[in-house]
Amino acid sequence: MGQDTKSPPNTGRITENGPLILHGRIRYSAGEGAPAAEFTQVALCRCGASGNKPFCDGSHARAGFADAGRCTRPPGTADQASGGDLLLNAISNGPLRVDGWFELTTTDGERFVCGDKTWLCRCGASGNKPFCDGSHKKTGFTA
Question: What is the DSSP letter of 64?
């Protein structure tokens, strides 16, 4: 019998007043010339205050970040499976682009599939958290 080589699904879970926890085969490139890092789980900053962006360092508690962890406008649903690699690309002074498919669960249990490209808010000011709505431009977010 052959082995099942299918990877487990990629998943994301939004936490109330805290980070977005992403599980899967995750690759992160810190920029041109920097070596890529590989993870199976990351906590992504949603408040914009982390000193280790795009990763959470617990600054949301000190900054008083408040977000219920629900989605006002989820991305369109798709039939694509939520597997394969996820590539994290932090856009300079902007959102975190996630290339790849993953299933996102909100704090109220809603589930939907995100992909092929998903733009996540890093500044904490989006009116459509956890997704970017361009608010980083208005707030002067830098990272």
Answer: T
**Nearest residue to 37 via CA among 88, 94, 78, 93:** 88
DSSP tag of 113: E
d(CA 129, CA 1): 45
The amino acid occupying position 73 is R
Single-letter residue type at 9: P
pTM for this prediction: 0.88
Neighbours of 112 (CB within 10 A): 15
Q: How far is CA 18 from CA 47, 63, 137, in A?
A: 7, 11, 22
Q: Classify each residue of 61-75 as buried b or exposed e, where b means 16 or more C-beta atoms within 10 Å of its C-beta.
A: eeeebebebebeebb
Q: What is the pLDDT of residue 15?
A: 97
Q: For residue 137, give the H/E element and its range.
A: helix 135-139
Which of 11, 28, 31 lies closest to 20 in space, CA to CA? 11
Which amino acid makes up residue 138? Answer: K
Judge whether residue 65 has pLDDT over 90. Answer: yes
